[in-house]
Write a structure and sequence with these properties.
The protein is mostly helical. Helix content is 77%, strand content 0%.
Length: 387
């Protein structure tokens, strides 16, 4: 009797993911915590089920794209436009404050200015996947808190582009003119599409009426819309997640598209799970254990610092203290796109090897502990975490 060894890996991975997800639910934690822990167990520092991190990471990135696609379907352009102060001004001030804080710390640690600025960029980005999943799990996605945090997360995704350009300049590598032109075209296209949808134009997707009863073709059309927009904005050197979000908003304002959500939901669950597993694969358990006090202390400092910065920004924008603290806690972790910045900095010799491993460990640990941090802040405020 012969069997394909890959089947053993897949079955074993599914069992580990199921077990850790069930454990996280028993402990009243979101599934994302279980997925990340499953990645640690399955990765090169655990059972060694997966050695090809890049492949798993690429598959997982589709999960983020699908997640933003679903969020776009549930968000109206007018709702997003109403929170422009938080989205535009708040996010810009938050990033500037994070960079300023890291420059001050860098002066104390005698870091080069380029490294300090890069580290400021890294800690300023929150996790779109973790926050949106948590908001969905706690039924807050459609509340004011959900809209405000979504606006900040989307703005951070957009600011990732100039961050990468600045990182290249700090490393002595300028941006190409062609790249800047394409990004300008993409920015104008995104703004024009948002304005068109905000004006309440009626959208009719091609073939939607004919495919109403054809479930198989519905799946392909829905995937085509989501991944097509993601590909287009990726080719324009902008965020693929932004393209998927705009595609979701377009579907949301279109007629006869209720079937899209039902057809893609199982795929979203699977790909998002793979994404978080890929985060767990990055975590070097031996490095974390060998530097437990340093990793733990920096992670705690990140949670406290980011919560404080975001709280003050929401407060300056006129929100109450309780709301500001709670919203700030949701944005306290370091996001998945910070992996991109850290990898770019390491490749361009802005981060030494030890600092890079420390950054990766802190990012992964902050993603794991983010739901617990939000629940802790909720309890300190006497606010049920399920509200």
């Amino acid at each position: 009797m012969h069997y394909d060894p890959i089947l053993l890996q897949i079955v074993g991975a599914l069992l580990v993911i199921l077990a850790t997800a069930l454990l996280s639910r028993v402990l009243n934690q979101p599934h994302v915590v279980g997925y990340i822990l499953a990645g640690v167990v399955l990765g090169p520092h655990g059972l060694e089920f997966f050695q090809e991190y890049e492949l798993v990471s690429r598959i997982g990135e589709i999960g983020v794209v699908l997640l933003l696609f679903f969020v776009g379907m549930e968000t109206t352009p007018r709702q997003l436009a109403q929170g422009w102060r938080v989205t535009v001004l708040g996010t810009l001030v938050q990033i500037a404050a994070s960079v300023g804080l890291m420059v001050a710390i860098g002066m104390w640690l005698d870091w080069p200015l380029a490294r300090s600025i890069l580290m400021g960029f890294v800690i300023s980005l929150s996790s779109t996947a973790v926050v949106l999943n948590y908001l969905r799990d706690t039924h807050r996605a459609q509340t004011k808190l959900g809209r405000d945090t979504l606006g900040v997360l989307l703005a951070q995704d957009l600011y990732l582009i100039p961050m990468l350009l600045i990182t290249a300049i700090l490393a002595g590598r300028g941006a190409q003119t062609e790249t800047l032109i394409l990004q300008g075209i993409g920015g104008v296209l995104a703004i024009a599409l948002m304005a068109w949808m905000t004006l309440g134009r009626v959208v009719r997707l091609p073939l939607a009426r004919f495919l109403r009863r054809d479930r198989e073709l519905q799946v392909f059309l829905a995937f085509g819309l989501c991944l097509g927009f993601a590909l287009m904005f990726g080719m324009l050197h902008l965020s693929s997640a932004l393209g998927a979000f705009l595609a979701g908003m377009l579907v949301g304002v279109a007629r006869e598209t209720n079937w899209v959500h039902h057809r893609l939901e199982p795929f979203r669950v699977m790909f998002v799970a793979v994404f978080f597993v890929s985060i767990g694969l990055l975590l070097d358990v031996k490095f974390v254990l060998a530097n437990a006090w340093l990793v733990g202390g920096v992670t705690l400092a990140v949670f406290v610092g980011n919560t404080a910065i975001n709280t003050l920004i929401f407060r300056l924008l006129g929100e109450g203290w309780n709301y500001s603290i709670f919203a700030g806690a949701h944005l306290a972790q370091i996001g998945e796109f910070s992996f991109v910045l850290a990898a770019a900095g390491a490749a361009q010799d802005l981060l030494p090897d030890f600092t890079y491993k420390l950054v990766i460990s802190v990012i992964a640990l902050s993603l794991v502990l983010s739901p617990a941090w939000i629940a802790l802040i909720a309890r300190l405020q006497r606010k049920p975490a399920s509200l």
